[in-house]
Queue: 3 jobs
Job 1
Amino acid sequence: MKTKVDKTRFTIIHCADFDAYKDEHVTLDGKEQALNEQSRITWPLNCYCVLVQHPVLGNVLFDTGIDSRWQTRWPRNLAEGYPVARSFDLKEKLLELGLHVDDIDYLIISHLHFDHAGNLWMFRGTKAGAGVIVQEEEARHAFLCANRYDCAEVTYHGDGYVRHEFNGLDGIAFELVRGDVKLAEDLELVLLPGHTPGTMGLVIRTEHTGTVMFPSDAVYNHFNYGPPAMKPGMCARPEEFVDSIEKVRQIMEKENGTLFYSHDVEAFGSYKKSPEWYD
């Protein structure tokens, strides 16, 4: 069911909780490095997407979370190495808001890693699926560089991409963008390379909450943000990662904004989740 709103609002849709490795997300200290060499230190993560309801653009979905079929679709070593504690079906979460996948007008993918693009398949044959917005540099990297030599994807190769989750999906096409993109005066995409070549964040400006940014994995957590900025271990372009954090910081300081980290369990506990809204 289409929902017409007079003012922009957004909600955070909780998709999953899973474990990853701490050295992928922060810089380990000396003691942790020694322990990590013996057995990699695990790190609990949350996973979510963001639904924006806009008076002109309609329903805008930022990311899709972990594949709700991960138990049968993930490479075995991914499921074992990144165990999912719990997951929520995105279609059911949308239904709680009175929406179906066909009601989504725009679908934006911050980057094509498995915990952000996993449910693209749900949008095959839909309006949003006909023009999934992704950065051109991200698409180039994901389609041309990820899992080139393991087409059956028997093994996860540790780069964040599960190729079949975005490649070869009938009814899915991509609209490639370059750099920062103003979708509306109160809704912008911001290119934040580093984590991947084409990671991008979402800036939303609302009447009561003010300016907020979802930087995706350009800023995993408050440790990365600092200051000073802390590089993670999982980073395609380390030299650009810190620059992107400073770009985020400039926007937040200029507009007195609020930053929503992508994988910060402590911060995530304080966020309102759907069906509650920020406006």
Job 2
Amino acid sequence: MRTESSLRFSVLAYSRKLGNFLSFSVHRFILLKINHLINPLLFGWRIFLLYCLKNDGFCIAFAEWLDAIIEIMAELTKETIMMTANGLFSQDGVREVSIDDICRKLCISKKTFYQYYAQKEDLVADVVTYNVERKKDEFERMVEGKNAVQVLKAMFALVGRKKTMDKDKRMVKDIMKYYPETFIKRAEDRSKALHNFFVDCFDTGRKEGLIRSDMDVEGVQLLIYIMHEGMAEYLDGGHRIEGKKVSFKSLSAAFEDIVTRVLLTPKGFEEYSSTDNCKNS
């Protein structure tokens, strides 16, 4: 079992390293062709070893190794299909991209596609999970080793980049509309994880004298979430007042000012402001 796990890790790691040096299209083409050509051969050898030489311990072990290789290649192929779909969904929206479009992009048959995904909904679920995990990993790297003030600073720096709200907007809207159950489940999981992170972070900040001790940190975290979602909806055309238009820069600055002045102690606000002064000097 340990050998199989080590083999799986090594093959996946080398494949992804190869992807760093090649364009995604070339990497995708190589993986799919290898899988298409080698898998039948590996499977044939496996059958021969197990049924023709079934009493040979070495042959049985080698057949199990072939099983592991076949499984890894299947995992890489499924990942390639998912990543290709993710790119197409981001570009054109989920509704506009058909299974035929994905197969055409990959130069595979629909029969091959259905070996890995029984229906488009399963593929959409994997795409959503991938994006949630990717954003979670990015956020964790961004806040690693930071105190509450530094976390807030990093969060507002992220909010200040309008492109983070614009990116993948069409894909997200399509998933919300046409695959609501998939979206709601993943969104709830992500919201719970972020909520727990911020509550723990703000609790630690209170002990360090950076966050006001009289604040309900769970309530503040919920308020931050509501304000952020409201900003995203405003940018998308919702909650507009006729004749009134506020720039994104003004909106994000007001958001930052309200949260930091309400949440931080004088000590915390001084540290928060000093990071701006250091950046400007």
Job 3
Amino acid sequence: MDNAVEVKRDPPPPPAASTKAAPPVEPREIEIQLYARREEIYPRQRVGESLGFFQKWRWAAVWVTQIVFYGLPWLQWNGRQALLFDLAARKFYIFSMVMWPQDIIYLTAILIIAALALFLFTAVGGRLWCGFACPQTVYTEIFMWAERKIEGDRIARMRLDQAPWGVNKVLRKGAKQAVWLSIALITGFSFVGYFTPIRELAVAALTLDMSGWNAFWVLFYGGATYGNAGFLREQMCKYMCPYARFQSALIDKDSLVIAYDAGRGDPRGSRSKKANAAAQ
């Protein structure tokens, strides 16, 4: 895909006003790459002494979504798992409700309402889903937090990547990958726990007696989390996410959008250490 190009040709020039024939103009070819290789981004964790307003809200969303995702499969209700999608038995357990295949109309209604709510929030508040609740955003934030804790802040990570391979670099990079893999496998395990009773799944994992399909889906979902949040990151949003493709059709001039204001501009150059970061 790196070699895929789009060729544009300039339109022919308008006829000259005079009777004298103009020399022919050779058409120019403009090569546009449809895919750009990812360049490493080293974001700052904070501006000034504390996290920004929206950063605090993002971390609040990370905590809420992950507590629900990891904790809900372990919740018991009337002697069984509170939320369990038992595909083999064709039954969905949702707290006190048991839904059968003929009840799929209710699930369809819930999904339609969720989709319409997503469209409404996007039209009013802009990229609320992408910025605060999307799994790609949430897990990328978690992986970047682990990266900062192990490799250091922005400047330290840049120096580490540019440094030759040595004991320090191998240990830090290896520790980061180990933490990433651990988070990914726990995520994959929790995901499968929504379709297989998670307590039985935990016993099977500890005794190395997990079924082939359960093991496959744990590794598949864990591998997707590891690759998407650890390496692809914003490439997922730019090239793969279907929601990003039609999101621009859901907003208008009154929607809240984070964008560069070319008319206002921004101050150029490095900020003085004595300057107030919040005031800028």
